[in-house]
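Hey L., structure's done. Input below.
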Amino acid sequence: MLLLAESWRNFFKYQKERDLKGAKLVILDKASSLADALGDFLPDAKWQRCIDHWHCDAFGKCLARHARADAAILKAIYSQEDKEAAMGKAALVAEKLRGITYKQRSGKDHEGDPPADTCHRQLP
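Output:
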């Protein structure tokens, strides 16, 4: 892990040497070492989890028989006009599904909630 973190630091150091500046948003996968290195070199930049990677992780935890319904749920959330509406829709969906435990639905134990800021990008 230390070697991976050092590799990301070297990457950002190289980018800064090439005059990287003004980065406002960085899209990351689940690698915590990448987020740590980002904070060292671009402390003002916001970051969010790559939605494609998050979807792969989420659908990997769902049973195949629920895939179509789960995709429709995510589509309903992401189709909202803005972040506030998307978060409201997500709350409604969560309330509706609250009676069904995660383990009953997916067959696996829950490993964390989706990041709240992935419904809509933070920056235009």
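The beta strands are 25-28, 46-49. The chain has two domains: 2-49, 63-112.

-- N.
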